[in-house]
Design a protein that fits this description.
Structural class: alpha+beta
Number of domains: 2
Number of strands: 4
Distance between the termini: 74 Å
Strand order of the largest sheet: 1-2
Largest sheet: 2 strands, antiparallel
Number of helices: 1
Order of helices and strands: HEEEE
Helix content: 25-40%
Amino acid sequence: MDRKGISPLVASVLLIAFTLSIAGIMATWSTSFVRGKTSVITSQAECIGSLDVEVKNYQSGVDGSGNAVANVTLMIRNPKSTISLSDILISLEFPTSPFNQTETVKGNHEEC
């Protein structure tokens, strides 16, 4: 029986063409993937430093029962108006005192 196959030259050309087409598909996909991630990161980076936080009042002491109490008043400003507030998580930690409280303040706004 006389069997014939494709020549090594044709096989090499087909293999190279297949490899280049896969590389082109991967390049197109990776470009769009990186652009999408870049736009998300850029929009998040614009939020950094957009808020001004000022401690307006801080009082601490002991109540009549001997429990430690604290009162903190914060002023949060959005001078650039680049973000909308939805939830603010305020975490107070005092390493040298028994105060340790976390409170979530909810608003009716969209996230940044």
